[in-house]
Amino acid sequence: MQEQRSANQFSSKATSDRTNVSENIQWVNQLTRSRRPGPRTPHNWYSDKLLGASTIAVHAGGYEDPTTGAVGTPIFQTTTFHMSGDTYEAFEEGSIRDIPIYSRYGNPNQWAVQEKLSALEKAESSIVFSSGMAAISSALIALTNRGGHVVTSFDLYGGTYNFMREDMQQMGREISFVSPVDLDSIQNAIQPNTQVLFFEVLSNPLLKTIPLRQLANFARENKLLLIVDNTFLSPICLQPLNYGAHLVIHSCTKYLNGHSNLVAGSASGSRKYVDRIWTQMLKLGGSLDPHACSILENNLKTLALRMKRHIENAEQIVKFLSSHPKICRIYHPSVEDYPYPWAEELLTNGAGGMVSFNVKGGDEGALKLLSLLQIPRIATSLGGLESLVSLPFNTSHSSLTTSQRMNIGIEPGLVRYSIGIEDSADLILDLDRALDSL
Ligand SMILES: *Cc1c(COP(=O)(O)O)cnc(C)c1O
């Protein structure tokens, strides 16, 4: 289809919504079109009642087909939709995100899963993307300008780090890398042109929890946008928007889909920001196929159940490892000497299923342990039903030297374990046998 000119997306038809965001982010004040929740149709399941996460996960967003009464959203495997009077009116009003026109712009399967994500994250609006990286790149390009500045951290997913270091800088954004748990250094990194703070709520692979509430307050006071990647926790453990973050991003590839059978991403927040990211997504092209949306929507229905089991299993395994003589150190918010005091307030619903630990014998010992474990697969990625295990030294952080790794806290012998939903007794027995043979 013919692309609509970008300027029309934000054409002003309605009242201006006052915003307290920075002069550095002038365009926010130009996002003046009146905004409704969604996009959604009258047939998407929606409730404004306060419901539990399991109920939301099962029902929210589901498209109830008025013609057949199908239980479950049908798959709209179509690229394009009949133009009608409504379509032309939407073009006229600049509200084309709200009606199905073309599947890169919007599709009922995208809307169903987006509405479920919005309900889970307590967001006004969400977009799904073809990967977590599509969500991150679209959001960061959309919410910063050439000449702007982003404060972020070394404790980042590798793809995000590379995008910040290479592409964002290439596109004229300045980037500062600081510790995500050191408020002073974050504050000191702020410049007159700072626009965005970007952090992972629970970081890879050392499971650092950021001081979310303090960062959100700081962002508000300094008129910055706080964007967080909540992939390691999922909205079952924590809903960052409730603490004042402006935008929450997921690699849905991980816990949200949870079955290691698709790659997807999402961004959720107030519609003002999400609409802006949507126009960026239209240009970069990272929209999610209807069939993948359908798989993701179905798998999301068990998110609360799955997370409960991931959390319980992780806590059991941390307990077992804590007293094991061949384990030197464990990284998980449930350990007694966890160094980030703000985590207690944030993680009352659990800390997900990721556990990292150092085994005696350094990287050789860790390699040996992997060869002895029988249940977890040796693979990168995380958040699936099945347990996965990998070593940062020969995967995510292999481009660094041992001493560079030590500088960022990755000591030899570090193992990253994505704890699945198997029986914890089996996982523990497997670890026990493997550690005994080390
Ligand atoms: C995997 C991951 C990403 C990237 O997501 P993809 O779906 O692989 O593009 C981003 N952030 C975190 C924290 C991740 O674990």
List the helices and strands and how they pair.
Layout: H1 27-30, H2 53-59, H3 85-93, H4 108-121, E1 125-129, H5 132-142, E2 149-153, H6 158-170, E3 174-178, H7 183-189, E4 194-200, H8 212-221, E5 225-229, H9 234-237, E6 247-251, E7 265-269, H10 271-284, H11 290-300, H12 303-322, E8 327-331, H13 343-346, E9 354-359, H14 362-372, E10 377-378, E11 388-390, H15 402-407, E12 414-418, H16 424-436
Parallel strand pairs: 2-3, 2-4, 4-5, 5-6, 10-11
Antiparallel strand pairs: 1-7, 6-7, 8-9, 9-12, 11-12
Helix pairs in contact: 2-4, 4-11, 5-6, 5-10
The protein binds pyridoxal-5'-phosphate (PLP).
Task: Explain how this protein is built.
It is built from 16 helices and twelve strands. With 438 residues, the protein is an alpha/beta fold. The strands form two sheets. Strands 1-7-6-5-4-2-3 form a seven-stranded mixed β-sheet, sandwiched between helices.
